[in-house]
Design brief:
With 203 residues, the protein is an alpha+beta fold. It contains 5 helices and 8 strands; from the N terminus they run βαααβββαβαβββ. It has one domain: Aminopeptidase (3-Layer(aba) Sandwich).
Length: 203
């Protein structure tokens, strides 16, 4: 899920690297702030807090898959995102989720968030570029994602198309609308990592 349409200029220097478990406290702090600040106007306060409680922030298991990335500006986390082949666990406790949304074994963009101070400056686009390159490098050429309403314009600008809008009912009865989206990836190479596994842009 994503939380902001990203249109502006990228901060400099901007480094993307693979996330590691020790990043989790900082990642979760950033993501909670992102959800609370960038969702306003799209969801009410009750929906935002229900999202945090039942859906939450990035799962530690995704970091162990080594397909989750951190974008840093001066050593501070400006955003994060990645992908997984596993179906998000928050669907297990939700109702009204169509079968196509639960489809396993298709790469799915997960937990794309941008710190509010860096929103609309190109951070999410760069994280998506690296994420899609990683997906292609692993032999996959179709990708799915579940976009919260603030993220839909960004994903549409990146070539994703809504398969269907979905109204999910969380265990406490709170309903959240999002869009299940898909994209076919080109088979050409994308951004390449250097030997240390980092991507430096704008230095």
């Amino acid at each position: 899920m994503a939380l902001q349409h990203d249109t502006g200029s990228l901060p400099s220097p901007f480094v993307i690297r693979r996330a590691v478990p020790r990043d989790l406290p900082s990642l979760r702090d950033m993501q909670r702030r992102s959800i609370r600040e960038l969702s306003l106007g799209f969801y009410d306060l009750h929906q935002v807090e229900a999202f945090l409680f039942y859906v939450g922030t990035v799962e530690e298991s995704i970091l162990h898959e080594r397909n989750y990335f951190v974008g840093e500006v001066g050593g501070w986390i400006a955003g994060s995102g990645g992908w997984s082949l596993n179906v998000p666990p928050y669907f297990d406790g939700a109702s009204k989720v169509p079968a196509v949304v639960r489809e396993p074994y298709i790469p799915r963009v997960r937990s794309l968030f941008v710190h509010p101070d860096w929103a609309r400056r190109g951070v999410a686009r760069r994280l998506m570029e690296v994420t899609e390159t990683s997906i292609r490098a692993n032999g996959h050429f179709e990708v799915a994602l579940d976009a919260t309403l603030p993220g839909v314009p960004l994903y549409e600008a990146l070539g994703y198309r809504s398969v269907m809008p979905v109204q999910v009912r969380l265990p406490d009865g709170t309903e959240l609308k999002f869009h299940h989206m898909r994209k076919l990836l080109p088979r050409h190479a994308g951004v390449a990592a250097n030997d240390s596994g980092t991507w430096q842009i704008g230095a």
